[in-house]
Design goal:
This protein is mainly β. It is 3% helix and 27% strand. It is built from one helix and 19 strands. The chain has one helix at 16-27; strands at 4-11, 32-35, 43-50, 52-55, 65-68, 74-81, 86-91, 94-100, 115-119, 135-139, 158-162, 181-185, 203-207, 226-230, 249-253, 272-274, 295-297, 318-320, 341-343. The chain has a 17-stranded mixed β-sheet, with helices on one face. The longest helix has 12 residues, at 16-27. It is elongated. The two termini are 40 Å apart.
Amino acid sequence: MKPKIKFSIFIPQDRYQDTLSCLEKLYGGDVKILAGKDKLNSGKKVIELPCSIDLYRDYHPCFSLKINSSKTEIITFSAEEGPGRLVHLMLNGQTAFTLAGPESDLNQCDIRTEKLAFWGNHYLSGINRLANLKHLEILNNQSIKDLTVLHNLTELKILEIRECDALISLAGLDNPANLESLHISYCANLTNLIGLGNKNLISLNIEFCKSLSSLEGLTHSDSLKKLHISSCDSLKDVNGLSGIDNLSSLDVTWCKSLQNAEAIGSLAGLTSLNLSDCVSLENIDFLKGLINLEELSLEGCGKITHIDAAEGLTKLRTLNLKSFSSLRDIHSLRKLTQLTELNLCLCENLQNIDSIKHLSN
């Protein structure tokens, strides 16, 4: 029998229809109301869902938890309100996440709390009490301008910041020595990464930060291995990447103003590079120095007219040139004998592919 999740949560009357509509949109006919079927009666509802699901903010104002129960028949999941209007999300009876809404009192939060998510205009007073905090989400906060209030959270490993339009500085992130993963999205007024300065950061994800124009601040990110930057419309260069020697995976996608990517050429340890849909990029000569590259995507980079710089990338296994509208010749790929995947879809001006017929892989 396919495992299911039995999901139990209090749904107020005015949110009932929105909640159920969202669940049905996500999971279709697999959603079953097992209890509390009367939509006019607010209270606890028990809902059965497929076993491997993602519950995103579309469902709850501030909740993101991935559950995979492939080896479990039933997982019970519930939300319970505690002191200070804090909501505890329970997974099999254990607190999986503590949620703090606009009216919550963080001073009432259990000092043993390891995972906390909050939204609204909190000033984060009391958060420094949570010495064991390992995972923190800050959503839709229009008050915080920097992150100095997090300075003493030395155990913090995962930090997610979303829709914080007042945020203009990452000052304060130099001290959480155990911070490994940072995700920043929809922070409209963040212009650079000055203040980051965390030497143990492994993964950095920045998306939809429309004012980000500089990567300055990444210089001391010695442990950074994965960097994803997407839809940052003001970013014209990536000069701040110089010297990040341990970076192995780099995605800079949908950055429509990016013109200068020369700094990438110094990242000799890169094995994966994605520059898809950087429509202003014209020069890719920096690829010549990336001799360890195994995966490369230049999809949608329509201003690039040739790929001669890829000629020496002999370890390359995957190459995506989809929608390379100005490409006419791929003669420079003839030496890439390790290639197993090559995407040339919608390369409308490509005239001849005879030069790669011998690539047997």
